């Protein structure tokens, strides 16, 4: 299949594929997508547009991300791919011993204990300084305006917002969580679809970040406010943790899948899981998408990859197995030998012997960005720094409290991370950015998007609209009801524990932008399972 084939495959779906040439932004909220495009029209490039869109998403989709979250980016510029890891570490003041002395045997989801250093504001500043054309204050201006003036909630957003508010109302009783309710449930309830919500404190915070290139967040008054809030309620995060933080430029990792190079951020992210699964399947032939053999092999490959990922992936400095060993051809072949006719119980192998918002941007100059940021588990820790709009993430929940585990909690260590941006190239040319947000669905979505494009010739919108599956644990698999019935029955006969669900959030939310290498035409798809939108010109 050529890139042009992928761009022009005829398909009738819920949405039509979108074409443009000078600029394109694809994300889960129309207002954020339009903000990114407006920045391009003002003279910004795809990197500026990505920053503007990301900042807007902290306002117009706070159910999935916030100023106090993490971010990762893959940036294609001047014919080279760059990786940015803006995930934050555990505070210097925390340890397994301290938690166990408090009687904590499993890391909690909410409160101060799982809060790690936020990386998103540093990501915006770093991207702006290295590759942007406009000052950060200008790229953050649309987000400031939405927070200050307010915006009307979209339907899917309001559904998840109301669901979170109801859940938090039942389980978050400590007064440390009051600021969350003051900010996101004013008047005692979540705003409804079409109602205006605004956050003046959020606006002031974004403005300060823009005017200081994020220094206010990490070394100024905002850092002080975070420190004060943490100390008041026995948290471990301190201003010193924020002052020391810097995002890291990393070399992206890849596997070659049928002539295409599939790129991910290296660990501590779980992009390695998607690459291991593709590496396991790359010597198989898949000619029909809606086929029981296709589903079975995909599910089995991702199960094996997750078994390895859960055992080995963490901050790269602490991994007991090297990334290159996990992605070696020999190890891929060894794992493929385990896939038979029946569903298996996955276990990690030994290579030494052989959720989130996502956005894609592209401009007419050839720049393209795959960007993802998240607070984790929706609103994250349930903590909002009073009067700032800073909703803090709970990424520390992914740490293990087993000292012998690769991903064991340690001060200054980054945890296993779920959010992953993806990028596709062929023959040293960019095909484009792609991503599927949604916790542990993300590498599974990446596998399905790549195969939908490369193996089955689907255009970006068709690739996103196609029925999805998600492996949960053991032999349990969720399928969308649109999966053909004969495939459901065939998978059950193979030993898969299959469940059909209508809950669209179970299958992630994706965005894709491909560029035609000859004409430069941009071809984009956005997620029909949410309030997805593409802004283009």
From TrEMBL:
Gene Ontology MF terms: hydrolase activity
Q: Which keywords does the record carry?
A: Hydrolase
**Matching InterPro entries:** GGT-like_enzyme (IPR052896), GGT_ssub_C (IPR043137), Ntn_hydrolases_N (IPR029055)
Q: State the Gene3D superfamilies in the record.
A: 1.10.246.230, 3.60.20.40
Q: Which Pfam families match?
A: G_glu_transpept
Which superkingdom does the taxonomy of this entry point to? Bacteria
Read off the PANTHER family from this record. Answer: GAMMA-GLUTAMYLTRANSPEPTIDASE (AFU_ORTHOLOGUE AFUA_4G13580)
Its name, as the record gives it, is Gamma-glutamyltranspeptidase / glutathione hydrolase
């Amino acid at each position: 299949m050529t890139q042009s084939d992928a761009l022009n495959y005829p398909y009738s779906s819920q949405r039509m594929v979108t074409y443009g040439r000078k600029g394109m932004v694809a994300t889960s909220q129309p207002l954020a997508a339009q903000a990114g495009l407006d920045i391009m029209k003002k003279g910004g490039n795809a990197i500026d547009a990505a920053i503007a869109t990301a900042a807007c998403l902290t306002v117009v989709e706070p159910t999935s991300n916030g100023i106090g979250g993490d971010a990762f980016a893959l940036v294609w510029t001047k014919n080279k791919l760059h990786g940015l890891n803006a995930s934050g570490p555990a505070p210097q003041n925390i340890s397994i011993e301290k938690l166990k002395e408090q009687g904590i045997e499993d890391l909690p989801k909410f409160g101060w204990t799982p809060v790690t250093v936020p990386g998103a504001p540093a990501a915006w500043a770093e991207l702006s300084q290295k590759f942007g054309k406009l000052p950060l204050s200008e790229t953050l201006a649309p987000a400031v305006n939405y927070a200050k003036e307010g915006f009307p909630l979209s339907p899917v957003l309001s559904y998840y917002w109301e669901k979170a508010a109801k859940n938090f109302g039942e389980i978050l009783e400590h007064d440390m969580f009051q600021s969350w309710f003051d900010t996101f449930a004013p008047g005692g309830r979540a705003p409804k679809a079409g109602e205006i919500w605004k956050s003046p404190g959020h606006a002031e915070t974004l403005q300060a970040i823009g005017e200081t290139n994020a220094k206010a967040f990490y070394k100024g008054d905002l850092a002080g406010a975070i420190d004060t809030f943490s100390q008041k309620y026995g948290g471990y995060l301190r201003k010193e943790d924020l002052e020391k933080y810097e995002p890291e430029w990393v070399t992206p990792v890849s596997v070659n899948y049928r002539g295409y190079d599939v790129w991910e951020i290296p660990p501590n992210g779980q992009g390695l899981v998607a690459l291991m699964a593709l590496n396991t399947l790359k010597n198989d032939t898949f000619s029909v998408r809606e086929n029981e053999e296709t589903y079975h092999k995909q599910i089995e490959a991702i199960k094996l990859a997750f078994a390895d990922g859960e055992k080995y992936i963490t901050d790269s400095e602490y991994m007991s197995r090297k990334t290159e060993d996990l992605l070696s051809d020999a190890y891929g072949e060894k794992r493929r030998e385990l896939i038979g006719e029946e569903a298996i119980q996955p276990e990690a192998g030994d290579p030494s012997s052989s959720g989130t918002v996502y956005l894609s941007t592209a401009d007419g100059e050839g720049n393209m960005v795959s960007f993802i940021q998240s607070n984790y588990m929706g609103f994250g820790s349930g903590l909002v720094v009073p009067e700032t709009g800073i909703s803090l993430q709970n990424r520390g929940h992914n740490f293990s409290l087993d000292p012998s585990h690769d991903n064991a909690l340690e001060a200054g260590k980054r945890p296993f991370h779920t959010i992953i941006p993806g990028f596709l190239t062929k023959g040293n040319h960019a095909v484009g950015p792609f991503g599927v947000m949604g916790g542990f669905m993300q590498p599974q979505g990446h596998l399905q998007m790549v195969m939908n494009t490369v193996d089955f010739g689907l255009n970006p919108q068709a690739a996103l609209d196609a029925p999805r599956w998600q492996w949960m644990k053991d032999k349990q698999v969720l399928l969308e009801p649109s999966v053909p019935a004969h495939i459901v029955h065939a998978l059950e006969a193979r030993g898969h524990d299959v469940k059909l669900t209508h809950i669209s959030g179970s299958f992630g939310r994706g965005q894709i932008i491909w560029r035609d290498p000859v004409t430069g035409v941009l071809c984009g798809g956005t997620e029909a399972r949410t309030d997805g939108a593409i802004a283009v010109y």
